[in-house]
Amino acid sequence: MDAQIFSIGTEILLGNIVDTNSKFIAEKLRELGINLYKMETIGDNFNRLVDAFKNCDGTVDFVIASGGLGPTPDDLTKEAIIEALGLESEIHEESYNALIEYFNGSKKKADENIKQAMFPKEAIVLKNPAGTAPGGIFTSKKGTKYIIMPGPPNEMELMFTNELMKHLPRDAYMKSVFAQIALLGEWEMAQKIDLDREKPTISPYITNEGPVLRITAKDKCEEEVDKQIRKGIEIVKENLSTYLITCDDMTKEEVLINLLKDKGEYISTAESITGGLIASSIIDIPGASDVLKESYIVYSNQAKEKLLNVSCETIKKYDVVSEEVLVQMLDGLYQMSQSELCIATTGYAHKGQVYLGILYKGKKYTKHLQLNGDRNRVRLRTKNHAIDMAILIMRGVYESNISI
């Protein structure tokens, strides 16, 4: 079975709001084994909406649209589908009564919102307990089912889960597991593992939190899907065991915190270029207080000298962005905190030039990175690299031949 998703609203096209609805719907379709054929965003234009809906008729099994169900004149989704399918609408009494109840018995306000209670008699109406706009399911003569849901994400998600799921068939079982990989780029992951496979498929890509291998399986039998997923995880472990952070549903910061807890150890950070981003990402995770001892933002030369005892002569001789300064930052941080794991960063974000250092149980690891992207992208990539390195070092698998 194939589906197409429409997000409706000029505010999406103008970039005023981010379309999270399509992502949510796509994930739910994947779980049901329904193939997503296409995603499209259309503004609040009646003729364009009618044409788009007509073009889908008979080409896919499901058309799912979110947005454009409000009471104002620019809310046109339902009316456009009714026009496209040649249907006629009438008052849906249950929806009208729900409007009256929503407005505390005021028929006047319900009548002002009456268009939200208008549906073809053939439609299946989807209740909206979180708002005033019901959703609906309309079936064309060619068999395509048109599904409309409200735009506010909380309303749409609740309606999808509680109402629409009753009417969607399961075409197959489809599951994905995300293997988080340390340090590697997309091409480097592809070189280390055979991606030319179907059961399961393994696909590399880069997220804001770093490299990922998506393991996906689809089958009519759920047991077979689970078997394929286990096979995919084993393939990743066989080929990328050194770089594998986790296949579980957790962040790399959670993995690091769990490592520190298991070993009864502490972490401290001294951050210049990352400006506290490393410590903040750790603090975001419950349980961080058990392992994070101290963190310093040492953005200026004076802060490095005052807090970490970095020599001003070293800064003058080698530059503040240098391995020599980084080493003194690590030494100073350890003297201050006595933490088993110490992380320090210095760099020029606008140039993408970074020095990253980790001291673990007396041994120092330093890395010079030349990164692409704007300053915030460079800072984020530095944070990811630091967490990755720390995990591999603590596991004892970060060796001199890892040059990435």
Write the layout of secondary structure elements.
Layout: E1 2-8, H1 10-13, H2 21-32, E2 35-42, H3 46-56, E3 62-66, H4 77-85, E4 90-91, H5 93-102, H6 107-112, E5 118-119, E6 124-126, E7 135-139, E8 145-149, H7 153-162, E9 173-181, H8 186-192, E10 201-207, E11 210-219, H9 222-240, E12 244-246, H10 252-263, E13 267-271, H11 277-283, E14 292-297, H12 301-308, H13 312-318, H14 323-337, E15 341-348, E16 353-360, E17 363-370, H15 375-395
Parallel strand pairs: 1-2, 1-3, 3-8, 13-14, 13-15
Antiparallel strand pairs: 4-5, 6-7, 7-8, 9-11, 9-12, 10-11, 15-16, 16-17
Helix pairs in contact: 3-4, 10-15
Tell me about this structure.
The chain has 404 residues and is of the alpha/beta class. It contains 15 helices and 17 strands. The strands form 4 sheets. Strands 2-1-3-8-7-6 form a 6-stranded mixed β-sheet, with helices on both faces. A 5-stranded mixed β-sheet has the order 14-13-15-16-17, with helices on both faces. Helix 3 crosses helix 4 and helix 10 packs parallel to helix 15. It is elongated and about 80 Å long.
